[in-house]
């Protein structure tokens, strides 16, 4: 089958389209014909060798897919051949989304939301589950609570703003001024231009902060949290010194890395189908332009998501 | 670390205790110090080479564990070091329960039920989730419905009887006469001695049959199902001919193979803690007697579960 693969760690141009073996589904697994694959910052780290989750090349990147069930392994009855599904196969132990087919446990997938095309659906699993697991599972955000989302226009952030609103929270979000209108339309109640001054000024007693930005943003957010408030972070997700400072300050630290989770995916499907969540896809590129997709993701200037179409 | 391992496929005596490398948790994973490991029929098939899920030996078997969180990987906030957990690591792609430590995604585990010791808790994940996914996810058993469970005294069956009762169903169960009292105490409403005649005699219009026995039992169960009733089977779980016959007969076929699922595990924890589910452990053996544990599981005459203690 055709797939984007790489023979060595390196810059984006190590990514080339080639032929690789088609995966076989084991018991409990489904084989999905990939129609679109989301591109995430973690992909670029793994490609470059900065975060060698998949060992040495060659390998096929890609943890976000939307597609059609081509074959079901023994014992699977959640899906049938022909079903449209989306999911997050095998993160972080294996990958394969940048290819024609991927095989993974049925519970790494859920039914694709009606009303999204494959490119939109492929933008959702990894980033959407990240936001869901940070806000719901880790921060346990409740209706009426006040949350600050750092990076409200980004791949994870723009979904987090919508999910926090759907949970009934009052949402503060940081973004550069040019993106305020975009984030406001996602439902943010208060926009903060972090380039124009200290984001923390005037903010106090928040219930939760969700940091998708990093570079000390988490630590600088401590003063805006109430006693017992939660700092959920996906950038400094195992920073023991930060965790200790948060705890010493009477607050709760939650380092979050996303895990495949069919129940979370089903919750996202429900949010989409009830009109409360929509992924924003900034660029859809063909598989052959995976290197360009990585350059875009590494620019850190994207709004929403980047997707490869097959 | 110490683990039961094997250098070749073969009879139970290929299982010996040796030293293997301690696993390292990746991001999203926990390292669990194993206190007890459940033994399941699938373990014996893999050991013998009949079902080579783990490739060629050497490998460490074991998909059922109860133990204590020793270390958490980056991004995990569902558990902390010292938490007691139980789960079903990595089935069917990897294993490792028959050893001192196992590493797997946090969502392959849940909090160990209060009131169970580690041996009892290790008896529950694979068999309990199998029963849960068959009765709840596949058969969608409803209160007041009537279900027949084949093999009501077995490792999966004795948990299925209790789960079906907890769901509010009326439960028919087959077992040899010597085990009727055991299965009745689990909550079965009607006991059938399959050795004394045709189990189907007098049975009609059932909503569901759950077959844990095999050897044609599923097919012979079709006459007792109502139109649209469900045959859920874990023994003929990918039998296309059987599936076609079930469908042609106006009923629904659900071949079930268990998948790790933290939500299902949490449901089992809740059932245990509210007094509605208790695994029965027939034998607890030390790690050194893994071969004997496999002889017992292969005898097919066990009542409840067999567990290795570490």
Automatic annotation (TrEMBL), chains A, B:
Alphabetized PROSITE patterns for the sequence: QOR_ZETA_CRYSTAL
Record InterPro entries: ADH-like_N, ER, GroES-like_sf, NAD(P)-bd_dom_sf, Quin_OxRdtase/zeta-crystal_CS, YIM1/Zinc_Alcohol_DH_Fams
Keyword rRNA-binding applies: no
Superkingdom of the organism of origin: Bacteria
Domain Enoyl reductase (ER) span(s) in chain numbering: 10-308
Alphabetized CDD domains for the sequence: MDR_like_2
Molecular function GO terms recorded: oxidoreductase activity; zinc ion binding
Record EC number: 1.-.-.-
Keywords from the named record: Oxidoreductase
EC class name: oxidoreductase
Keyword Disulfide bond attributed: no
Record Pfam families: ADH_N, ADH_zinc_N_2
Name by which UniProt lists this protein: NADP-dependent oxidoreductase
Species annotation: Kitasatospora camelliae
């Amino acid at each position: 089958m055709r797939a984007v693969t790489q023979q060595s760690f390196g810059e984006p141009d190590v990514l080339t389209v080639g032929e690789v073996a088609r995966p076989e589904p084991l018991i409990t697994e489904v084989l999905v014909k990939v129609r679109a694959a989301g591109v995430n910052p973690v992909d670029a780290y793994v490609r470059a060798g900065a975060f060698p989750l998949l060992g040495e090349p060659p390998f096929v990147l890609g943890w976000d897919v939307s597609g059609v069930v081509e074959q079901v392994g023994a014992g699977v009855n959640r899906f049938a051949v022909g079903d449209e599904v989306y999911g997050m196969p095998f993160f972080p132990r294996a990958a394969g989304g940048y290819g024609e087919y991927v095989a993974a446990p049925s519970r790494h997938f859920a039914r694709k939301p009606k009303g999204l095309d494959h490119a939109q659906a492929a933008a959702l699993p990894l980033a959407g589950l990240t936001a869901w697991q940070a806000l719901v599972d880790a921060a346990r955000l409740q209706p009426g609570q006040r949350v600050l989302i750092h990076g409200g226009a980004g791949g994870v952030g723009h979904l987090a703003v919508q999910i926090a609103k759907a949970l009934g929270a009052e949402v503060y979000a940081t973004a550069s001024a040019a993106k305020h209108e975009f984030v406001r339309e996602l439902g943010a109640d208060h926009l903060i231009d972090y380039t124009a001054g200290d984001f923390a000024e005037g903010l106090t007693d928040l219930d939760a902060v969700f940091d998708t930005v990093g570079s000390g943003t988490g630590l600088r957010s401590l003063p805006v949290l109430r006693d017992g408030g939660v700092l959920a972070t996906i950038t400094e997700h195992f920073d023991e010194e930060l965790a200790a400072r948060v705890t010493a300050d009477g607050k709760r630290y939650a380092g979050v890395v996303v895990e495949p989770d069919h129940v979370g995916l089903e919750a996202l499907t429900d949010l989409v189908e009830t009109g409360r969540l929509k992924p924003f896809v900034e660029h859809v590129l063909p598989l052959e332009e995976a290197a360009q997709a990585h350059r875009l993701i590494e620019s850190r200037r994207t709004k929403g998501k980047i997707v490869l179409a097959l």
